[in-house]
Structures are given as C-alpha cells and as structure tokens.
Design brief:
By secondary structure, the protein is an alpha+beta fold. It is 33% helix and 27% strand. The chain is built from eight helices and 15 strands. The protein has a three-stranded antiparallel beta sheet with strand order 1-9-8, with helices on one face.
Length: 235
Amino acid sequence: MAEQQVQPLHNEKHANTKIKNGINLEFLKTQHLVPVVAHEFGRVANEFPMAFVKNNETGKFQAVALFGLEPGENLFVDGDKWNAGFAPLAVTRYPLGLVKHPEEEQYGVVIDEASPLVGEEEGQALFENGEETDYLKRRKEALISFIEFSGVTEVFTEYLAEKELLAAQTLTVDIKGEKKDITGIYMIDEKKLNELSDEAFLELRKRGYLAPIYSFLTASHQVARLARLKAERSA
C-alpha cells in the first residue's frame, strides 16, 4: 500500500491541486473499524454496528463503526466500490486533515499528496488565483466540525463510562451455522440504563445524550448484516 505523504496545504504549492470525489478504498479495505462521532450515530446505525473500544494505555473509550468481524477485514469494500449508503466523517474528510500547531491554539490544513483522489487533472480545484475556492472552504468547515464533534463525543463517552453505562461484551455472530465471537468491545448496558433513577435519566435528556444512546442501541441489529456479508463473501 502506498505510504501517505501528508503535507501542509499551501496556495502556491497546491495552486493546481484538485481532489476527486469519492473515498480512499485502498486505505479503507483493511480497516475493520473507524471512529464515529455522536452527531452521526443516527446515520451510522442505519448501516453499521457500533461499539466502544478501550485504549488500554489511556483507559479512554472511543466510539467506532464496525466494518468487519476481524482486523484487516472491511466487508463494505468490494473491489473499487463502497457498498454502503453512507460513510462516516472520519472517512469522508480524507485526503484532507487538520493538524494542531504545537505552540498555538490554531489548526492547519494538511493534504495527503499520495492519495489516489489527489491530482492536477480531474476533480475539484482547491485554489483559484491564490484564493481558496468555495469547495475548499466547505471542506475546511467540515474538518473543523469533525474536530468539534469529536470533542463533544469524547465528553459524552466519558460521561457514560463514569456512570458505568459501558460494559465489556462479546458479540456472537452466526456465519453459515458457524458461531464466531467478537471480543474486546464495549456496549451500552441497556439493563443499567433502564435502572437509572429518574434524576439520572433526566440528566441524560438535558445533556442531549438520549438520541445518540438509542441510535447506538439500535445499531446492534446491524451485526447480523456483517455476518450475512461475510457469508456471501466466503461463498
């Protein structure tokens, strides 16, 4: 797989650079999970199962969409096609990204020059006469939103963990009569959620957490979809 060549975006250096629409399938086909933000849980739940994974070094949890049942497997990439009706923001922001400047509170835009979506022949121009195009402005807004949404999602996830609403679970899927266990993931504990006091439940509502919680819970039905896709693929 081609190495990434991430460079700061510059109006002179990238004066003729264009970005093609689409997502980087080359990178994605080996990703079995991708971070998601609470603002997109509703849309993610229509396509993919979700889980929380724990960073063993920091002890922090992160919400992810599951694209496969084991590391290195993405059941939604078929050749050069993305077989889902939606792709999470972590996927669609590529080949652009934001990097925080160490000394300042500011972010700088970076671009992966090695991406198959980047070139000078076809796609959307990033600069015109040295000025940012409307396309680039929209992309930058989306990148900033993603950073903000990620912060909100982190607070949401920490709150769930603090209230002990996240529980380690093993998902068992049935692939053509063969049982397979997915371990190392955490889910929202529905039993504990239902046992919350009225006061604690009201607090969830006030914080705007009920919608993402219920979206997350409905996403568990998508595990069967992954099992079906895997069975079709092995057929």
